[in-house]
Specification:
The protein is mainly alpha-helical. Helix content is about 65%, strand content about 0%. It is built from 8 helices and no strands. The relative contact order is 0.09.
Length: about 140
């Protein structure tokens, strides 16, 4: 493969992911108005190690990310996606809009997504068990 600089090698890619997750954790910590030391205590992770994660020096394991998520009160899934451990869940205009909303915390976004998905599943199962047209007929005569 020619070295035209268009693709990062595996080492650079890991470093990039580590700095991305570290920056994301720092942003979430700042949004929550929690100091590094406070998050360290809440997550049960040493202060120096957490600092290295935020600076992109270390790439945390899934277990450490789960502890950090708990300390930040955000979903571990959000951190896993940022760290490249999980793929971004399939979306659509509604889920994409919720994820993109900077006025919501990660926890609020996750709750909205959970509620939205539960409604979708409920409606999908109702649609499969109700003959076409009958649901509208029942809705009209439910006084």
């Amino acid at each position: 493969m020619p070295d035209d600089g268009s693709q990062a090698g595996p080492i650079e890619k890991v470093g990039h992911i580590a700095s991305d997750i570290g920056e994301y954790i720092r942003q979430q910590r700042n949004n929550a108005k929690i100091s590094l030391r406070q998050l360290s205590k809440l997550a049960g992770v040493s202060n120096p190690y957490l600092s290295q994660i935020e600076r992109g020096v270390r790439k945390p394991s899934a277990e450490i990310l789960q502890q950090i998520a708990k300390g930040l009160r955000i979903s571990a899934e959000a951190l896993y996606v940022q760290a490249g451990i999980l793929d971004l869940p399939a979306g659509g205009p509604v889920t994409d809009a919720i994820r993109a909303d900077t006025g919501l915390t990660e926890r609020q976004k996750q709750i909205l997504l959970d509620v939205y998905e539960s409604f979708r599943r409920e409606n999908d199962s109702a649609d499969k068990s109700t003959p076409i047209g009958e649901s509208e007929h029942n809705a009209e005569h439910q006084d």
